[in-house]
């Protein structure tokens, strides 16, 4: 498996890369090749004090590259100039990567933030599965919020085709996932709740047979974003798996409001599977 790991060279992203358990999770799902990418925005010039943007960025990537190499990954580094989300997605498509990984917090010396708008824009335009890894500030610096990325996966489904694509990503997590929690958020109608419970039970049986995971199901009612985040907390999920909606002929992904809110406002790691090129090889 081949991934593009986008970094803004901040302490926050270094914390994600240096987390041994996170590296083990990537190894356990079959990641062998890592393409470490940082993007120098167009408004950063070599005239800034102490900074020749491209060469400084390449030099700054060396410690992060060393961490991956010591963990046994094959690593290539890339420095691009331009709009971050376009360069991230462009490299992933050019390399035919299986996944993009971005950190959700942090600011680099190059003032390129892989949070907020950049992450949302990566998600909106990606045609590769996107892992948003949550990083938090601590008293001693930064740390990943939940280290065991794929150990406990919450899968939120509305039973759409796009949700089914995300469900089909589960087998690629074998080796790292121990438990899966299947969730549907409905309107509280008794009949639709019963139908949803039946459909989730069918998915749970299939998933146990295919992967051997421990699987639980639940149907909640209310606002989808609120209920998904509440379920994340209840079950202790380390990553939320969710499908995105719709893509145009220009391959510009238009996130559904629920997926976008989970990516933008949530505190859990998120694995977002887009409609195209979603199935892992």
From TrEMBL:
Alphabetical list of Pfam families matching this protein: Usp (PF00582)
Domain UspA: 2-132, 150-274
CDD domains: USP-like (cd00293)
InterPro entries xref list: Rossmann-like_a/b/a_fold, Universal_stress_UspA, UspA
Tree of life domain: Archaea
Stored Gene3D superfamilies: 3.40.50.12370, HUPs
Family according to the record: Belongs to the universal stress protein A family.
Protein's name in the database: Universal stress protein
Naturally occurring in which organism (per UniProt): Halorubrum tropicale
């Amino acid at each position: 498996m081949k991934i593009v790991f986008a970094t803004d060279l901040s302490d926050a992203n270094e914390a994600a890369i240096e987390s041994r358990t996170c590296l083990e999770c990537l190894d356990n799902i079959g990641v062998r090749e890592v393409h470490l990418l940082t993007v120098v925005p167009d408004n950063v010039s070599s005239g800034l004090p102490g900074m020749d943007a491209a060469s400084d960025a390449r030099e700054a990537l060396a410690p992060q590259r060393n961490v991956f190499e010591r963990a046994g990954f094959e690593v290539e580094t890339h420095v691009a100039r331009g709009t971050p989300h376009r360069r991230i997605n462009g490299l992933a498509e050019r390399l035919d990567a299986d996944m993009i990984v971005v950190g959700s917090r942090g600011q680099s010396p190059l003032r390129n933030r892989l949070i907020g708008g950049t992450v949302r824009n990566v998600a909106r335009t990606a045609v590769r599965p996107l892992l948003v890894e949550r990083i938090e500030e601590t008293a001693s610096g930064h740390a990943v919020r939940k280290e065991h990325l794929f150990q406990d996966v919450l899968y939120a489904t509305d039973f759409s085709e796009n949700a089914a694509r995300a469900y089909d990503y589960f087998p690629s997590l074998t080796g790292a996932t121990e438990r899966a929690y299947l969730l549907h958020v409905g309107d509280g109608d008794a009949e639709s709740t019963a139908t949803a419970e039946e459909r989730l039970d069918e998915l749970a049986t299939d998933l146990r047979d295919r992967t051997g995971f421990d699987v639980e199901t639940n149907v909640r009612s209310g606002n989808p974003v609120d209920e998904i985040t509440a379920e994340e907390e209840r079950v202790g999920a380390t990553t939320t798996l969710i499908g995105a909606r719709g893509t145009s002929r220009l391959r510009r992904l238009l996130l559904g409001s629920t997926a976008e809110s989970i990516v933008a406002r949530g505190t859990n790691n998120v694995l977002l599977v887009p409609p195209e090129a979603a199935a892992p090889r």
